[in-house]
Amino acid sequence: MEDARSYVMLAPERHCIALLTLLFALAEALAAEPPVAQDIAFINARVLTMNEPEALDGQTVIVRDGRVHAIGPTTELPPGPEDRVIDAGGRTLMPGLAEMHAHVPVPQGPNQPPGYTQDVLMLWVANGVTLARGMLGHPLHLELRDQLERHEILGPRLITSGPSFSGQSVDHLAAAAHRVAAQAEAGYDFLKIHPGLSREQYDAIVAAADAADIRLAGHVPVDVGLPRALHAGQETIDHLDGYIHVLAQDLDEHEAAAHAFFGAALTPHADREAIVAAAAETRNSGAAVVPTETLFENFLAAVEDFDALRERPENVYLPPALKAAYMARLAHAGAMADSLGDFVALRKEIIGALHRAGVPILLGADSPQIMNVPGFATHRELEAMVASGLSPFAALASGTVAPARFYGAEGRYGSIVPGADADLILLREDPLEDIRHTRSIDGVMVRGRWLERDFLDAELKRIRQRYAALQHE
Question: Residue 13 — pLDDT band, cuts 50, 70, 90?
């Protein structure tokens, strides 16, 4: 099959900002009017601040001007006279989640209907995702980032890379330096590394990035290798790219396998005793890891039960043409059947070892991507982190306080403390008891805007019905 690294790309290189604005206006005209920010007091809440592993029972959290104003026992902290009071009745209030490997669509991307960008933003929010790290940047994302920051569009906070650096986009060393400088000047938050770069190209990008004071993240090109990427200061290793290669014995004898699907075919040659050393090297480098484990579980699911994968309940939130493209790609996963199960299991061993070594694990499902439905995939990724050895609290931390620490934004988001942006999720069930309870969402707050369950359900219904109509066209 074609190398699965060449994902279904959602973004052509050139579109005008006016087109984005027009399509957002169309999508918003079809959607319910989102609530405005309010002063709200949540009373009788079980608060998971994420600054400590235990929840605090019987708490009041007061939100004013889009930020957490105060937190304290309900018996001691009365709401203000103008506060709207929401009685949590013992339900869990926690910070919003981060999707640290997001693919933000742009208008007229392949296999997507008009307004798909707005749908993706809403799917993230409806699932409690209040921060998205865009990993396939586009010039339109700069304006989108600012619109989200100004609350002109309802959606997560956006941190975005520029267009990616790959063997195709960087054809000579001078082009690498120019591309880095241009992206830094444009205002992108970081640089995205894709496969196919030579060592010389990668080193040129690193040197230019250091000069421009902009960081890089993403894949580890095979010719570069994990040790070189860590030494160069790549800030995140996404997909666990490069780890199987480090563990593989006699790599030179398996060159073809090294270049195919993240080295999955190298699994039988992996030295598991080398995992601890690789984890320690990662910790010492200061890099974080974004596993995107659900992406690989989807390939395994396609081999084990293709029909069950196709009929997942959340697939109603995929545009029909996009779902068909994903399933067509997965139809060839059987060619990797001999290695996929062991490969996915080995990846979980690596994630667990990285966590035990103190490497920051950042929650990222890679969505929307191959059968990873925005938002819904984030909850699957949390389950995958627990299956990899993280406690429920550690898994939640990977999507809350860990991204905040990664960006030097502790106290701004990722925790419930006075002064933090009011990005909150109200859950019916306790996620510390069962990580699957993150799905039991009764409401989401996005920087002070309270989205009740009825509003979220109406938006999900709108998206679901629109895609059902497209299915029958």
Answer: very low
Has residue 246 been placed in a domain?
yes
Q: Provide the 10 A C-beta neighbour count for residue 6.
A: 12
Q: Distance between CA 257 and CA 264 in Å, rounded?
A: 7
**Which helix (H) or strand (E) element contains residue 237?**
strand 236-238
| Alpha-carbon separation of residue 412 from 96, 135, 235, 329 (angstroms) | 12, 22, 21, 40
Total number of domains in the chain: 1
Question: Has residue 48 been placed in a domain?
Answer: no
pLDDT digits (tens, 9 = 90+) for 109-155: 889 999 999 999 999 999 999 999 999 999 999 999 999 999 999 99
**Domain interval for residue 301:** 17-33+97-160+219-413
Asked whether residue 418 is domain-assigned, the answer is no
Query: Residue type at 350?
Result: I
Summarize pLDDT for 57-67 with one digit per residue, the tens.
999 999 999 99
- Dig out the tokens for 353 from the structure: 């070892």
Sign, CA torsion 243/246/249/254: positive
Q: Residue 150 is part of a domain; what is its CATH number?
A: 3.20.20
- Candidates 8, 30, 21; CA nearest to 109 is 8
Q: Are 94 and 396 in contact (CB under 8 A)?
A: yes
Tokens 């929840």 locate to 55
Number of H helices, E strands in the chain: 17, 15
pLDDT range class, residue 261, cuts 50, 70, 90: confident
CB 10 within 8 A of CB 110: yes
**Domain-located, residue 190:** no
pLDDT at 465: 97
pTM above threshold 0.85 = yes
349-386 residue pLDDT tens: 999 999 999 999 999 999 999 999 999 999 999 999 99
